[in-house]
Amino acid sequence: MSLAPDSQKLDFAGSPVNQKLSDEDKIELFRKMTRIRRLEQASLKMYNKGGIGGFCHLYIGQESVAVGTISLCGENDHIITAYRDHGHALAVGMSMNECMAELYGKASGCSKGKGGSMHFFAPDKNYWGGHGIVGGQTPLGLGLGYALKYNELEGCALCYLGDGAVNQGAVHESYNLAALFEIPVVFVIENNGYSMGTSQKRSSSFRGCLAQRAEGYDMDWDLVDGSDLYQIRAKSHIAMERARKESKPSILEIATYRYYGHSVADANAKKYRTPDEIENYKKNHDPIRLWERRLLEEGVLSEEKSKEIDDAAKDEAAASIEFAEQADPPSLEAIREDVYWETDHDTEASRIGRHFFTD
Amino acid sequence: MSRKMLYRHAIREGLDEELARDENVVIMGEEVAQYNGAYKVTEGLWEKWGCKRIVDTPISEAGFIGMGIGASMLGVRPVMELMFWSFHSVAFDQLVNNAACVRYMSGGLINVPIVVRGPANGGTNVGATHSHVPEGLFASFPGLKVCAPATPADAKGLIKAAIRDNDPVYVMENTLLYGTEGEVPDPADGDHIVPLGKAEVKREGSDLSLIAHGRSVIHCLAAAETLQEEHGINVEVLDLRSIRPLDQDAVLETVRKTNRAVLVDESKGFGGVSAMISHLIQELAFDHLDAPITRVTTIDAPAIYSPHVENDQLPNPKRIVEKVLRMA
Question: For residue B113, is the peptide bond before it cis, meaning its omega torsion is within 30 degrees of 0?
Fold first, then answer.
């Protein structure tokens, strides 16, 4: 995943979409990434303490991808991702409280405690999940774009997937349909180098990079350095505009890195890659530290302001734990709710025939 | 007034009426548009409604069904044809994990108003891969609804109910019924809708109940005539029509009336719709039974190709008559 050496890197700060950013916008991007990291660190802590069950796939290291791309979204842009979905949730504007409560399996969680870590949703914020099956969400993302086109709305669907998803059949079927039907969708491959414990080299056969497979489907593609927020925004903007204005799909491959295991339960997280590799990323490629440094250089951010933002994020995460711990779990009755729209709304149709078969 | 219509034309009329009623309804599938449908169910619809409403897809079931599910989350109402329901296996993740579970996992924030329809039957000499009967399979997933019409009138009425329903509905048709004819109410007399969850007694009787769905209903009606004429046994035939939601009251009512039940089901014996019906009868009408519940199901092996014996593997009037006579 190593991209061009620093000396050869282009500076994307001057791209029109970045020139439009106000100082406050830039600080807000920093705040969002910082909040994601602090929420994830809090999640990790509480998972290890037993407060959170199931799987918990942390986004630490990848924050710039969700924040950078989603910062470009407007009213008719829609978002869908896989199970590493906490970062996107905060990026679209969901609260830490509803996210943490969902992790705790509480009724006040974003999915009423019915989805868990992998299944966060906020359709009111154009966020369609949060999906557990690798690659399974890609046809749905395609469908969001299909609906935009059907309704003649100028927008795009951002459909995120991991590098481990690119060999799934549903992904390739989605690529083909997207190009064939000219659907306004951008497939964003968040390439963190590992599909669970299997490195990219051991899992995928490809020429050039994973995004280049787009050529087989006559689709545009680009490769993005995920540690550079300006670059993410500049390149994503082009793909998103291609979708919105020309109704053409693209594949973006954003090189990134996760500092922790595939999930918190990944027993081999430190075995399939070297400590040096992880340290190198933390030290030299961390997207939050690089953005912070950039904003300090630009004079947009001060050390004090940075600390203030970080402290506030820490406090907010701590408060979300408090909120989640005190929240009520779902009732037993709630198990039967949200299965069918018709029964939930007690419609005439729902009163005909037996819908549930609990003895 | 009603008219005689073919089963395939009755479905088409239902689709056509719903396309006219709701501009969000889109028909998608392999060969549904320019080819006029592999079984001519959608014949003429592309010419009438054009490329936006009638969409040919590539052979890519996971892709286009998932796409339809995604589009439905934003208000499109896709009616997707599986050329054979047997092809569900290549789209299973979409049909189950996404269509059935997204509403639940989102705490009710999303609904998926899709219809997936197509033939689900054996008996056409196409071997095991093309002869699956998955209504029991899909009915076992909460979040999904399943129906299996046996007659042209029910086929039209159920497809219309399915399209109007705000949950995913899987309609299991039958290639061997597409060319059958029956009375269908005239649209001039009002919308003909058969609600999901409503069974129908297709033949009144007093001695024994045959309970079936799909093409097995037609076999039951034929068997009933033989039993009446040759053996003086007056059987009732209950057509479930809808598998989930299920008209449990109608099942119990016919059993309480005749006190004997033979379940006829093109599924295999292990699991399947009839296994569920049998459980419900024993639990809720045990005291009304004068004999054990028996079943006529497909002989428990993958579907055989050979035209010489395929019909004997499936439920058929002869096997139903024999089963009833063994109970008597």
Answer: no
